[in-house]
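Work Package 4 report. The design task specified in the project plan requires that, given a folded chain encoded as structure tokens, an amino acid be chosen for each position. We show below one input record used in the internal validation round.
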């Protein structure tokens, strides 16, 4: 399983947030993420494969064009020396090592850090999003190799940029004053943050097969449906409800028993699929985010979906208890996720 966590930049908070008293005195100076016309800036290691940079860039720009340019967002595409050891020359290894050091310094500088950035763990196989408050910007870091993870150069940027959207719209002065930018009150429960990113990355990929034009296979309905049934199966087998995956502490508890993926990611994606069904369209699901800065996540949820969070938890568990995951061929009548096929 690839690490996809939106808490990656959390340790940076202590060094980049003013204390409550200072914040109260400088309300007008509180930084804000742009939710319109924000830049997406891509940085790469030297000699990064142009094909994969282009696929990644085209995908994230395509998605942002539809649902909003937020940020500014800085993307770091990293080629590591272990991508293909069989063809790596000594000259190329040294070039990459020097380039990675330079890129880490760039990352640290953007965070307002004087450090050289060598504390960053950019091991191969990861893709994650992060955020900074002062200066206000969002980051996405990708170390996956196309030799093993080619599909993730389309699915992945959609997933991670969904986190950027969640954060930009979960931003509020009150969240900063209370040092709560990573708090579920503003960005939502962990199952929502990851579950919606999983669902939307599948759905948007399915809706736009042109994004896979340079790849061997796209996100077909069969594959999309299979992924959702697989996630349902993983969640049901976990026997832990999604409301056990809300806070950062919940995440840590689930991580100790190896249940983050089946509950937060898999279960969260199924829960968000039910919310999407209730909303009626992806546009209406995204409209929910626009209410969060003023109301906070849970009040916005109640207003937008017309039921309380506890009511949703109860209804979701009742619905899912009657759903049967089908991982082989099946008819659409028996497919609990069939409504996603025509979702706009």
């Amino acid at each position: 399983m690839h690490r996809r966590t939106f808490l990656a930049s959390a340790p940076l908070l202590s060094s980049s947030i003013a204390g409550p008293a200072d914040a109260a005195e400088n309300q007008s100076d509180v930084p804000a993420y742009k939710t319109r016309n924000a830049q997406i800036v891509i940085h790469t290691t030297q000699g990064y494969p142009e094909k994969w940079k282009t696929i990644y860039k085209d995908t994230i720009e395509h998605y942002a064009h539809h649902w909003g340019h937020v940020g500014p967002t800085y993307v770091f595409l990293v080629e590591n020396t272990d991508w293909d050891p069989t063809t790596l020359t000594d000259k190329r290894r040294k070039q990459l090592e020097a380039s990675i050091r330079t890129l880490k310094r760039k990352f640290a500088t953007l965070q307002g850090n004087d450090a050289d950035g060598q504390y960053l763990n950019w091991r191969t196989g990861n893709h994650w999003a992060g955020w900074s408050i002062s200066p206000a910007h969002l980051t996405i870091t990708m170390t996956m190799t196309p030799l093993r993870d080619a599909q993730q150069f389309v699915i992945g940027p959609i997933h991670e940029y969904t986190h950027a959207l969640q954060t930009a719209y979960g931003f509020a002065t009150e969240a900063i004053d209370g040092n709560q930018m990573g708090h579920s009150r503003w960005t939502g429960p962990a199952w929502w943050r990851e579950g919606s990113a999983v669902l939307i990355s599948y759905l948007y990929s399915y809706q736009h097969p042109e994004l896979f034009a340079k790849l061997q296979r796209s996100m077909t309905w069969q594959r999309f449906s299979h992924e959702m049934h697989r996630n349902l199966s993983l969640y049901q087998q976990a026997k832990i409800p999604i409301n056990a995956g809300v806070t950062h502490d919940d995440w840590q508890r689930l991580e100790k028993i190896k249940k983050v993926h089946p509950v937060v990611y898999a279960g969260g994606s199924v829960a968000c699929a039910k919310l999407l069904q209730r909303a009626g369209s992806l546009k209406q699901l995204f409209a929910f985010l626009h209410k969060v800065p003023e109301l906070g996540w849970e009040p916005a949820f109640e207003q937008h979906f017309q039921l309380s969070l506890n009511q949703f938890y109860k209804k979701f568990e009742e619905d899912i208890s009657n759903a049967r995951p089908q991982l082989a061929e099946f008819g659409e009548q028996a497919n609990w996720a069939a409504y996603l096929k025509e979702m706009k």
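The radius of gyration is 20 Å. Validation will be extended to a larger panel in the next phase.
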